[in-house]
Amino acid sequence: MSEQNLERATFGAGCFWGVEAAFATVPGVVDTRVGYSGGSTEHPTYEHVCTGVTGHAEVVEVTFDPAEVSYDALLEVFWQCHDPTQLNRQGPDVGTQYRSVIFYHSEAQHQSAGAARQHKQSSARPERPIVTQIEPAATFWPAEEYHQRYLFKRGMGTCPSRSGGSASTG
After folding, report:
1. N or C: which end of the chain has fewer CB within 10 A?
2. CA 81, CA 62: separation in Å to the nearest integer?
3. What are the structural domain ranges in the chain?
């Protein structure tokens, strides 16, 4: 596998700990990193992002081999690991940093994300609109080292506060 054949995808779906765990074990995913994207502050820290004033979302940057896993398959993982109808929250985690967002890295990803959101909305209950934002990829700022692979370092596949989906207090 050549590194030049790899692609990146960036997703925000609540606390990045659980979202990273959802993507890290997908066959064809080569690497995951948690961090911050979509805000205005350079070199944001976790403490600053948690205030909600930076505009960043907690995100997972997924490096994948498109010969092994499609972007559409990654979108399915994204939809399954959180509730895309909750505005600026996931479960107990509240704030714009926990928003549902897809940062696309190419026009093909943009089109796929838009089609997937439309399909998801058409199959959802009309009174619960999909609030997922779709935006061009912004600067990805890696989170502090202690956040990287947080759940795996602790021997957990999901956060203790949930049986699946995104994590809390991450």
Report:
1. N
2. 14
3. 3-153
